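User: Here's a chain of 565 residues. Predict its fold as tokens.
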Amino acid sequence: MDVERRGAVAVGWLIGVAGLLRLLPLARLHPIVWDEVEYFRATDWVSRGLVPYRDFWEHHTPLQWFVFAPVAAMTSSPGVSAILTMRWAQLPLWILTFVLLAKWMRRAGASAPAAGLAVLFAFCSSQFMLAAIEYRIDALGCALYVAGLFLLQRRRGIAAGALLCLAGFANIRLGPLIAVTMVATVLLSRIRWRAIAGATTAFAAAAAYFLATGTVALAFRRVWTENYLAQQLAPEPPLALWRRLSTPFGFVPQGFDLGSLDVGTIVIFVAGIAGMIHVLATRWRARDELFVLALLQIVNVTFVGRMGYIHHYHFLIVTLLALPFVAHVCDLLLASRCVAVIATVVTVAIAVSAFASVFRGKEADLDYQDMIMREADRLTPPGARVFSGVGYALRREPAYEFWFLATNVVALEKAGIFRPYDITADPPDAVIADQRTRFWLTRHPEQAEYIRRHFRPVWPELWLPAMTARLTPQSPSARWIVPAEGTYFVRAPVPLRFAIDGNPQPPSDRLTLRKRQRLDVAADIMQTTDIFIIPAGQSRQFHRPPEGVTLDAVAPPRTHVPRLW
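Assistant: Prediction complete.
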């Protein structure tokens, strides 16, 4: 076995070790994030025969939901296991993506050890891997784009054009990159007409679906017009790109955090930029495929940098396109006999990746998410409607048409383009007060006051119907619109007088009420008095999760020994 092959085998084993370590966050140590809930619900609705945009609101292109709909149909879990199932289901896509990208690098001139090292650094990148293990539209979009590049390299024009077009229907954010890729193909490739034919055929097939479902105009409005308007209305956070780029170097909003150092990402950043500069400087005459890829990467990074909000998953495609340049730098170092330098960097990257994968997990947040999701399902009847900013109640219908309170929903509602939700006129059966819901309520204080008086927090984020009020000698009466039908217990230290829809009721500590009835209460009191009207069979006790544990898992990770069960 020659030296290059032995090096490739050794790197392959290291990739396997790094990949296995990253399965721990996938399965247990990484809590679900907002977008995963959104994409799961869209996929689940498609699996039940609903048509995107017509039957439910969304603002992304829909291909991922159709591809994974059969998987969603196989799970009925109301908790996090439904979304973890989707994580495992998209794992083959990432394996295929890396296999095709490694083959592309080999054909572009990279040695087997260098191509393997580039993939290894991606596996050691927490920024890349944490986004990659999440159930996202980026998985299918990246796989289709890389497959398109692979087929272009092998002059399979029709298939390449079709896959590049479909990548846009999987993830609209890839649109500018796909467009420039097609332009480069037309200008530089001999298979330009076949690529155009393939892209046109795929686009026609997708358009036929929208025509058949009568959603052409609606899909264009949701995916293009509303996203564009929201981008103009939502202010761009200052230094968003630089904040995201500084995170792998340990600089987080709370300050410098040694545990946040991400050596794999740092290597990809530094080697990717260095390799791209070297390729542009030395191959501008040849204008080979690596030179063209450098130009595509410049367009890619420029587009990401111009986004109003920049998140870790926006760098998935950036990282993938950087790997050929990382491999180029590795080959230069190997040719210079800098094996010791590479070995040292690899050792540190794997050690830091192992530390981040095992000892920086947030399994307590995952458990709390699962509990809230299951409690929302258990404590509400089938067919109940839940108001939430994320859609955590997977098996309950959303109370608001714009059921995922993304930034563009808030911006477009504020501008009067989206219909606001009047919780008073149309009360839900439960409220999940996630971070996005709370932000929305700060902009709607009257809705927040309604929730405070008509719901009670069983958990900080899970609020169920229950009427509360504080009576004072100056204001000894209260009025509610009953939020849910049922029998209620009255808890008050003084006798109360009741009226339902204006009709006086005999004194009682139990009331049978229907949803949307008007309930009035009054009392003769000399001091401030709190009253609670609670559904029968439910305790008044308020519960709290452990300190630092939240439904949205927004607290920074802490170094600890993981609980893997």
